[in-house]
């Protein structure tokens, strides 16, 4: 094999590996919101008053 072919093959494999890692890391963030997520404007139970006065 010629050296430039090996270098190009190595770089292509490195790019594919990097893209694969990015996809694996990004997949949890790209999923559709679950049923319990009512959107950004919904009040979350943690943010309500514990005393019930507000």
TrEMBL record:
Transmembrane segments: 6-27
Region described as Disordered: 33-54
UniProt keyword terms in alphabetical order: Membrane, Transmembrane, Transmembrane helix
Origin: domain of life: Bacteria
Protein name per Swiss-Prot or TrEMBL: Uncharacterized protein
